[in-house]
Amino acid sequence: MKRGPTGHFFPITTLGETCRAFIPAPLPPDPGLLMDEKLQDLAQRASLAVGRLDGISMLLPEPHHLLYSYIRKEAVLSSQIEGTQSSLSDLLLYEAESSPGVPVDDVREVSNCVAALEHGIQRLREGLPLSLRLIREVHGVLLRDGRGATKQPGEFRRSQNWIGGTRPGNARHVPPPPDAVIDCMGALENFLHGQPVAMPVLIRAALAHVQFETIHPFLDGNGRVGRLLITLLLHSEGVLSQPLLYLSLYFKQHRSYYYELLQSIRTEGDWEEWLTFFLEGVIIVAEQAASTVMQLLALFQEHQQQMRTLGRLTSSALRVMDHLQRHPVTTSAAVSSATGMSFHTAQRVFAALQPLGIVTEGTGKKYGRFYTYTRCLEILNGE
Fold first, then answer.
1. Distance CA 346, CA 344 (A)
2. Residue of 260, 166, 244, 176 lying closest to 212 (CA atoms)
């Protein structure tokens, strides 16, 4: 349904030229959403897919084992959309302090993205509502150091920004002027809390994501925070007990169409086309995430059985296995520090696990070795 522009243009002068900033109207859309039979079916299927994912996640004996790597995978994908080149292996090597040999700025940005998501989830669990305060806190962690540290971490922008183009005059989208940001974000906060009207959380998440991207309230990091907002809303509403649904890969795979839809909503108001795209993505991603969880559960059980054949090393090997589930790239020193076993015992365990094909050693050297839980990383990477 094409409603026309979903806001109004406001003339501004910035960088010595006059252009028009776009100020979005508060949500929900007006006229209201046209939930035809197709959209209702998609919404129901998406809700069921998310429910199945949440149910499967409850099977995890130690959810944080999977979450450690899964959150990092999402951070890598989200950062890649913004142009970083780091892989999941690069990040895990960086965290294991094993000299990954990749651009440090890139991997630091991804590491900050991990910290931002973990901070947001922890604050929600402490009882802080999904609010402007929390969004600013998440942004502050995201840009706490590295290339974004000079872009007002944790603060709404006080200057004009733009999307696409070399200057505001030829930009694809010019967000609201700085003095309108707080009002726009205040209205969005109300919508996140079900005001002025309540609607299903997946629909709310879809609309809120677009609104956040349109407001672009920060000087940098808007895309990453906007994608985190989806996960934080689903978790805060109790739809997902564990934060396992991330749409970054889906948005990356359909990047051109994704940006085209965001812009068409601003100019034409076709929210239904966006909802179709978003809900289809939720179904695909939720089903993939559920499959990943089941594959990892089967893998962990298989390898635990193999380790029970190692005689005297069995007990130590199972402790190393517990560590590998949380840290698929690690070192003997890291295992020793985390488990309390001796460095020598950790080395003996890794020597026993290599012939079983459970881990691979990445350096070929006698000293400074690191070990990769190969199949675990392959499953996380969809291989």
1. 5
2. 176
What is the SS3 assignment for 20? strand
List the end-to-end C-alpha distance of the chain, in Å, as a whole number: 39
Residues with Cβ < 8 Å from 41, sequence gap 6 or more? none
User: Are 7-292 and 308-380 equal in CATH topology?
Assistant: no
The percentage of the chain sitting over the pLDDT mark of 90, rounded to a whole number, equals: 64
The whole-angstrom separation of Cα 372 and Cα 88 is 12
Closest CA to 188 of 134, 150, 147, 145: 134
Q: Of 311, 320, 371, 366, which Cα lies nearest the Cα of 341?
A: 320
Matching residue, tokens 């289809």:
280
- Whether domain 308-380 has CATH 1.10.10.10: the reply is yes
pLDDT at 219 over 90: yes
Q: CA 75 → CA 41, 96, 126, 230, distances in Å?
A: 31, 17, 22, 14
Contact assessment for residue 191 and residue 211, using Cβ atoms and an 8 Å cutoff:
yes
Predicted TM-score of the model (pTM): 0.89
Query: At the topology level of CATH, where does 7-292 sit?
Result: Fic-like fold (1.10.3290)
17: three-class secondary structure by DSSP: strand
Residues in the chain: 383
Domain spans of the chain, in order of start: 7-292, 308-380
Q: What's the mean pLDDT in 354-371? A: 86
The closest alpha carbon to 248, from 271, 281, 222, belongs to 281
Q: What angle do helix axes 104-125 and 63-81 make, rounded to 10 degrees?
A: 130
Give the contacts of 328 (CB within 8 A, at least 6 positions apart). 69, 92, 372, 373, 376, 377, 380
pLDDT in tens, 119-168: 999 999 999 999 999 999 999 999 998 777 888 999 999 999 999 888 88
